[in-house]
Design brief:
- The chain is an alpha+beta fold.
- The protein has two domains: about 80 residues, Type Iii Antifreeze Protein Isoform Hplc 12 (Alpha-Beta Complex), CATH 3.90.1210.10; about 140 residues, no CATH class.
- Helix content is about 20%, strand content about 30%.
- The chain contains five helices and eleven strands; from the N terminus they run αββαββαββββαβαββ.
- The strands form four sheets. Strands 5-8-7-6-9 form a five-stranded antiparallel β-sheet, with helices on one face. A two-stranded antiparallel ribbon has the order 1-2. Strands 3-4 form a two-stranded antiparallel ribbon.
- The termini are far apart.
Length: about 270
């Protein structure tokens, strides 16, 4: 290689290196992150150590303590600083009246101590009553009704008309009633899409007056439960107060089916 070519290559290399240095000098490196330590006041709150289901008996091993921001602490929470250790021992042996997720704070409203009533009494709202009625697949939406679903309660009965003929009558007793249990099942298990098909009873949440009407209806004919949409729970929160079975309604709709008349009408 000629001397002139070597000099040209050297000059080009030096020029490229100088250009690279000048270019990189104008590109400022990113600033180093600044770590600011901020102290947050916390307290020790009693929480569920694992998922707790309705009716489960809890003990000290079911709970654990976890740090919780003091500003986000509710007065209902059990804290170690306010005698929580003693309260945790007192709650041992209690029954869960509602489901709790792992890490969810424990409160006395979610637990009921032994001797203060059964699980069903614990989950029943104040002033309400629980009453059961017989069901089967064809009268309970094909066994697809689950606890906490809402239903309409329909009574199918036979009565004698004014003309002396016997007719089949369908009466809607109550609307938008909460189902507390299907058989012995009071909570929907994860992934479970249907109730136990062998369950023969449904337990409903009613007012004292509605409970009387339900007991009467159970002796008068067959009860059918009509499943409602979850969207109806907010739009139609009130249940009906019961029918006057001794009063005939002139606005009833009569349909002739297979030689038997049926009458269906609402009560709210």
């Amino acid at each position: 290689m000629k001397r002139v070519q070597l000099i040209a290559i050297s000059v080009a290399t030096v020029t490229a290196a100088l250009a690279f240095y000048v270019a990189t000098s104008f590109v400022a490196p990113p600033p180093a992150p600044i770590l600011v330590e901020k102290t947050i006041d916390t307290t020790e709150v009693l929480v569920a150590a694992s998922d707790i289901s309705v009716g489960q008996i809890v003990n000290e091993g079911t709970f654990r303590w976890t740090s919780w921001p003091l500003s986000a602490t509710s007065p209902q929470y059990i804290t170690k600083q306010s005698g929580g250790l003693e309260m945790m021992r007192d709650l041992s042996g209690s029954v869960a009246r509602s489901s709790l997720l792992a890490g969810e704070p424990i409160t006395t409203l979610k637990l009921i101590k032994a001797g203060q009533g059964g699980v069903l009494a614990a989950i029943l709202p104040q002033g309400m009553r629980a009453i059961s009625t017989k069901i089967k697949a064809e009268t309970a939406a094909g066994s697809l009704i689950l606890p906490n679903d809402h239903v309409d309660v329909i009574l199918i009965r036979r009565q004698r008309s004014k003309g002396g003929n016997e007719e089949t009558v369908a009466d809607t007793l109550f609307r938008n009633v909460r189902v507390i249990a299907i058989g012995q099942q009071i909570e929907t298990k994860e992934g479970k899409k249907a109730a136990d098909s062998s369950a023969s009873t449904a337990t409903l949440e009613l007012t004292p007056r509605q409970t009387e009407m339900m007991a009467l209806a159970n002796s008068m004919g067959e009860i059918t439960l009509s499943l409602r949409s979850v969207a109806d729970m907010a739009s139609d929160p009130a249940a009906a107060g019961g029918l006057d079975f001794n009063k005939q309604r002139g606005s009833a709709v009569r349909v002739l089916r297979y030689g038997a008349k049926s009458r269906a009408y609402g009560v709210n």
